[in-house]
Design a protein that fits this description.
Number of domains of chain A: 1
CATH topology of the largest domain in chain B: Sodium/glucose cotransporter
Number of helices of chain B: 25
Helix content of chain B: 55-70%
Largest sheet of chain B: 2 strands, antiparallel
Oligomer: heterodimer
Strand order of the largest sheet of chain A: 1-2
Shape of chain A: elongated
CATH architecture of the largest domain in chain B: Up-down Bundle
Order of helices and strands of chain B: HHHHHHHHHHHHHHHHEEHHHHHHHHH
CATH superfamily of the largest domain in chain B: Sodium/glucose cotransporter
Strand content of chain A: under 5%
Number of domains of chain B: 2
Distance between the termini of chain B: 49 Å
Strand order of the largest sheet of chain B: 1-2
Largest interface: A-B, 49 and 55 residues
């Protein structure tokens, strides 16, 4: 359904979208570049089933978080759209 | 051999069947499958589109050899989907056109910007597709006993049928079938290898388990084994952290900027479906990408254990010779080694003449030379044999590799043909072309692109850039395509001048840098000569920031974009508010 931009608080909606996006990208950065690369040496002191934790994040862990991030984003966006009366 | 043929024939018949069922009737069908693909189905098609012959056959071996260093591919080729879902896909779907150059041309109200986008798209896609076609040729020639050229012609014929007939619609549903074939062929051997080595049927868990019957974890044991042979520690890398970061980032931003991935999200009905679809795509991709590091580590362990210090037995008379040696108390080399020697993917050179096979790294403590060479592809191809799986599973792996190559090739073909028929013909040169004519031109362009791609595959050995697909395709997509789309959505003030400056400042330096260090005069140069110590694979990430800066500066010193275009940007940010806007939508109405 197409509706008119004037009827909805587009500015407020967009601010909320950008805020959500930036916080999720921060997590995206931390689990891959942070845990898997920059702080790997530190995390490698901890082991997960015999795998050094930093190494595990780089090869498996970050990917699981990526999947969770996208599905969380979908849910959060649907909630935002409802809140601002937007029908995608 | 017979099982390989059986599976290739069966799967190819399925692909043709789907092509006949899913014929395209309009340009809308042909370019974007009528915007009618279910998000989960599109996720699966995207996964097949995305995972190429290299992902399927070579990646596990690459990781097995590089250890931690292989993580750049794992994170890089999955993390880009987060960027796609959050930053690009839903907004581009809301924009509502057919191609990536459509967005660039209409958002930036400029035929010149569209042309630059077409050039980027064509270069990236042709580099990528040549690699796929040569992969098809290699698979056929090695496993089905025909020449390289015949293999490529057969592959071309199959893709021709479903891409030319069905367009994006045919390609989408064939890709779904291809995903099923490739994921089955990949995970079944992995499950059995994991069971054999760790007793855990889930490879991702086996990866972090103890070796069966021993109190030591799989990765610790692998670390001990490889260091005792003179290799670096498996869970470590010698590359600088900064370079690893740049390569990972270039692959991620490159993934998000690849036209053949982006257009997959044009095929779903709405913006919310595009988001969801990116999530499903990553689920299906992760099934392979989280198994691959496990396969790499298992196979490295297995191969060293079953080959190192074993007495070499040649393929002719293998059974009898091996039995005789065992009776004498010796340990023969495994049968799979003898089988795969014929394909030249593994080879043995008895340098010290002791008849035993030594696997050694560069810093071997006993000073012996390495005698065994193993091609990266072997880790996946020989997996079923190492796990002693039945013949029919072994044949399936070849069909899986072909499915991976053909599905990616078909997705690229669609991008190439739409760039020519839609962006060059309909939107640039012959603006009054009817929909029927455009559909005919699109089929013709797809047909010519198949032929061109086939010949590039045949002559790929002579085309130096084909071997550098990772650096070129991802680096250029990250530096030239990603910034112009991102700024076009998130920064309303970005204008035509900014877009052209951004694309050129991304494209030209990245291209020259990669050419210089991969093909030109600087080939073989060490890290000390690289800009900021960044390898050619990671440079796209560095120049991506240059491209963004150039886009911002050029926009700010010139006039802001017209009101029509600013309204359009507001529309695509809010789902369901898209209205046609004179200047930006004059050439084509949004859907």
């Amino acid at each position: 359904m197409t509706h008119n931009l004037a009827e909805i608080d587009a500015k407020g909606y967009w601010r909320a979208v950008v805020r959500l996006t930036l916080s999720l990208l921060a997590i995206w950065f931390i689990v891959s570049y942070g845990a898997g690369i920059l702080f790997r040496d530190l995390l490698d002191n901890v082991s997960i089933g015999g795998a050094p934790l930093g190494f595990w994040f780089a090869q498996n862990g970050s990917i699981y978080v990526f999947v969770a991030l996208i599905f969380y984003y979908c849910r959060a966006m649907n909630r935002l759209e409802k809140k601002f009366n937007i029908e995608g | 051999m017979d099982w390989s043929l059986f599976w290739v024939f069966t799967t190819f018949s399925i692909y043709i069947g789907i092509a006949i069922w899913a014929r395209a009737g309009s340009t809308n069908d042909f370019y974007v499958a009528g915007h009618g693909v279910h998000p989960v189905v599109n996720g699966m098609a995207t996964a097949a589109d995305w995972m190429s012959a290299a992902s399927f056959l070579s990646m596990a071996g690459l990781i097995a050899g590089l250890g931690y260093g292989g993580s750049v591919y794992l994170m890089g080729w999955t993390g880009g989907y987060v960027l796609l879902a959050l930053l690009l896909a839903p907004f581009l779907r809301e924009f509502g056109k057919f191609t990536v150059p459509d967005f660039v041309g209409d958002r930036y109200y400029s035929g010149a910007a569209r042309l630059v986008a077409v050039i980027c798209t064509l270069f990236v896609s042709f580099t990528y597709i040549a690699g796929q076609m040569s992969g098809v040729g290699i698979a056929f020639s090695r496993f089905l006993g025909v020449t390289n050229e015949v293999g490529i012609f057969v592959g071309m014929g199959i893709v021709f049928v479903y891409a030319v007939l069905g367009g994006m619609k045919g390609v989408t549903y064939t890709q779904v079938a291809q995903y099923c074939v490739l994921i089955f062929a990949y995970t079944v051997p992995a499950i059995f290898i994991s069971l054999m080595l760790t007793g855990n049927p889930v490879p991702q868990l086996g990866f972090i388990s103890d070796i069966k019957g021993e109190g030591v974890s799989m990765l610790e044991k692998l670390n001990d084994t490889v260091t005792s042979l003179g290799f670096g520690k498996y869970t470590d890398s010698t590359k600088s952290n900064f370079d690893v970061l740049c390569i990972t980032a270039a692959l991620m931003f490159g993934t998000a900027g690849l036209p053949h991935v982006i257009v997959r999200f044009f095929t779903v009905p709405r913006a919310s479906d595009a988001r969801l679809s990116a999530g499903w795509a990553l689920v299906f991709i992760s099934l392979l990408y989280t198994v691959a590091p496990a396969v790499g580590a298992f196979a490295r362990t297995n191969i060293i254990e079953s080959v190192n210090e074993k007495t070499y037995i040649a393929a002719e008379n293998y059974e009898a010779d091996a039995a005789a040696l065992t009776a004498d108390g010796g340990t023969p080399s495994p049968a799979w080694f003898a089988n795969w020697e014929k394909t030249k993917l593994v080879s043995f050179d008895d340098k010290n003449g002791d008849g035993k096979m030594q696997i050694r790294g560069p810093a071997a403590p006993d000073g012996l030379a390495n005698e065994v060479t193993i091609n990266n592809d072997i880790y996946v191809l020989a997996n079923p044999e190492i796990a002693r799986l039945p013949q029919w599973v072994i044949g399936l792996v070849v069909a899986g590799g072909l499915a991976a190559a053909l599905s990616t090739a078909a997705g690229l073909l669609m991008v190439i043909s739409s760039a020519i028929s839609h962006d060059l013909c309909r939107r640039t040169f012959f603006k009054d072309m009817t929909d029927r004519t455009e559909l005919m031109v699109a089929r013709g362009a797809a047909a010519s692109a198949v032929v061109a791609a086939g010949f590039m595959g045949i002559y790929s050995a002579k085309l130096a850039f084909v071997a550098q697909v990772v650096a070129f395709a991802f680096g250029l997509a990250a530096a030239s395509i990603f910034p112009v789309i991102l700024l076009g959505i998130f920064w309303k003030r970005m204008n035509r001048e900014g877009a052209i400056a951004s694309m050129l400042f991304g494209l030209i330096p990245t291209f020259l840098y990669i050419w210089h260090f991969k093909i030109g005069a600087g080939k073989g140069a060490g890290a000390d000569q690289w800009l900021l110590g960044v390898s050619p694979e990671g440079i796209g990430f560095v120049f991506m920031w240059l491209a963004m800066a150039a886009g911002v500066v050029a926009s700010l010193v010139t006039a802001p974009p017209p009101q029509d275009v600013q309204d359009l940007v507001e529309d695509i940010r809010v789902p369901g508010t898209r209205q046609p806007h004179g200047l930006a939508d004059a050439g084509m109405a949004p859907e």
